[in-house]
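// run 5 | inverse folding | seed 20
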């Protein structure tokens, strides 16, 4: 691996840093964006039970808010339990915006790496081509320098694409996952509002 990095020249180090950052972000998002952590299965039922029991205290609301992103949205509804339907929905939407921002954390960076990696590979290719042309002189070409320039060009192009492709796949996957989580949270919050306002049995 070290031999490949040396053969690829100094531009490969930029791609190596990008690959490390992308891998770290992918692992972090895989661990964070788990359905069981974002949308606990029985949380809505538990909140409805707490509401019907009348045991709504500031401690219960704070604990619910810290339990999960869905808990944060439902806690906003509980804080406005005596308010009109429109006020409850507005508080839920505000809480949902904050939760969405948290769920989307690092996705912009991941998308940037997916877009930038091929360009960084292309930059390495240009550096390699410059070395190839630099190997030409009046007495002919230097085979060693020519071979090094070709290796720089090919390694950087290949490495750039190798980083960009999986990063783009994970970026699209995480984006779709976050969108589905947000929609499901909104649906569960609306169900709770309907329960509170006796629209559902």
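// decoded
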């Amino acid at each position: 691996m070290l031999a490949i990095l040396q053969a690829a020249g100094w531009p490969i180090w930029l791609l190596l840093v990008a690959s490390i950052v992308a891998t770290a972000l992918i692992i972090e998002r895989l661990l964070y964006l788990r359905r069981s952590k974002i949308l606990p299965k029985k949380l809505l039922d538990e909140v409805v039970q707490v509401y019907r029991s009348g045991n709504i205290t500031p401690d219960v609301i704070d604990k619910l808010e810290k339990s999960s992103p869905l808990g944060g949205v439902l806690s906003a509804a509980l804080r406005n339990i005596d308010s009109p339907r429109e006020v409850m929905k507005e508080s839920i939407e505000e809480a949902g915006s904050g939760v969405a921002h948290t769920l989307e954390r690092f996705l912009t960076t991941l998308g940037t790496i997916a877009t930038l990696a091929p360009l960084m590979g292309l930059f390495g290719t240009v550096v390699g081509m410059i070395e190839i042309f630099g190997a030409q002189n009046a007495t002919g070409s230097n085979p060693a320098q020519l071979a090094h320039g070709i290796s720089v060009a090919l390694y950087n192009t290949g490495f750039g694409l190798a980083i960009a492709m999986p990063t783009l796949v994970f970026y699209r996957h995480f984006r779709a996952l976050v969108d589905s989580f947000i929609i499901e949270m909104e649906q569960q919050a609306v169900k709770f509002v309907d329960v509170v306002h006796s629209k559902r049995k």
